[in-house]
Amino acid sequence: MGTLSTITGSVPVTPAQAVHLLHGRLTAAGWQRMYTGDRGRVAVLSLRAGLTVWCWGGQFRWRDSSGAQVTHPAADPDGAARLLGAADRPLAAAAA
Fold first, then answer.
1. 28 domain-assigned
2. In whole angstroms, what is the distance from residue 7 CA to residue 91 CA?
3. Residues 50-86: pLDDT tens digits?
4. Which of 2, 9, 23, 47 yields a CA-CA distance of 20 to 30 A from 86?
5. pLDDT 10s digits, 5-50
6. Number of independent structural domains in the chain
C-alpha cells in the first residue's frame, strides 16, 4: 500500500461525495476492488469481505475487527482512510 497525503479541497456535502473522496484516498493508498453504492441520504463503500463503510448523518461508520462500531467525520476522508488503513494492516499480515 502507498502512503496517504493531505489533499486540500472542498468539504463533501453529500454522503456520495464523501464516499467518493474516501474511495479516491484509499485508491491512492493502494486499495483495489472497492465497490460503492449511493441511495441519496446513505452511501456505502465495500472494501473487502467483512469491511464496509457506510456514510450518513455526516459520519463514516464501520465495524472494527472486534465488531465495535467506529465513526469518523465525513468531512475528513483523509483521516478515515488513515484509520481504515491502520485497521486493515493486521488482517493483511495474517493473510500473507
1. yes
2. 27
3. 899 999 999 999 999 899 999 999 999 999 999 998 7
4. 9
5. 444 556 678 999 999 999 999 999 889 999 999 999 999 999 998 8
6. 1
Residue 74 lies in a domain: yes
pTM (2 d.p.):
0.79
Between CA 25 and CA 93 the distance in angstroms is: 21
DSSP symbol at 4: -
Cα first-last separation, the chain: 14
The verdict on residue 72 lying in a domain is yes
Domain that holds residue 42: 15-89
For residues 35 and 44, what is the distance between their CA atoms, to the nearest angstrom?
Answer: 8
Q: 89 pLDDT band (50/70/90 cuts)?
A: low
Provide DSSP, 9-76: -PPP-SHHHHHHHHHHHHHHTT--S-EEEE-SS-EEEEEETTEEEEEETTEEEEE-TTS-EEEEETT-
